[in-house]
Amino acid sequence: MLTLGFAVIEALAGWWSGSLALLGDAGHMVTDALSLGLAALATRIAQRPASPRHSYGLRRVEALAALANSLFMLAVVALLSWQAVLRLMAPREIAGEAVTLVALGGLVLNLVVAWLLTRGEGDLNTRGALLHVMGDLLGSVAALAAGLVIQFTGWTPIDPLLTMLICGLILASTLNLLRNVVHTLLEGVPDGISLPDVGQAMAAVEGVRSVHDLHIWSLDSRQPALSAHLVLTDARRWPAILAAQRAMLADRFGIEHVTLQPELPAAAPLLFMPGGSRHEHDHR
Q: What does the radius of gyration of the chain's CA atoms come to, in whole angstroms?
């Protein structure tokens, strides 16, 4: 509500002063208010317990909200860049003092909101919301710098030029977040975990002959999950092997959601031959 309320003030000031930086920051703050609301809603939905229809719960909603926020940010960047190019082609007079005062207020507000978000969870959803606020923060810095330059030099092209610079910074952060979100939704191996290293560590546990069908993914940005088939040397040792695997995966890789299927080596087929029968490995 703070972000949305100040966006109205900034939009009015930008329209009166003729500053694209202020108008762009105001539009950005409106999208941020919507994004913060979406992130808050997603957080509440993600806390719902598992159900017969959603056996994992709804934790993936946080990643979907981050995806929506990322796409929203790409649209904002495209719109601001286009407006900046138009303003460079057709400069207009800008009231530097008004831009400076309003941008300073926006800078303080965004610092407060960013501080509040950094105290929360570091999941993709919160990162998406924080990305919007940091974009607003950079926009306020750009508007403040543009206001000061125009106020003391009268050089108005600084306004759209700084807007384009901030768009580039926001674009880089947005693409990085978008990559992480898509990776999570595609059930890729979480960052910081090497599937070959995990497989070799599991195979090194005493009583395990080999590991296959190993899969590692994440339910959200905080909880990795693993499933695998383990070929055992002796099925009677399975309880001890299972306990050792769980402890190793939790301690070394931080993986606690584990599903393991024990298997015995395939029995050698019985061959019927002239003069008797024997197992294939005996024949070899």
A: 28
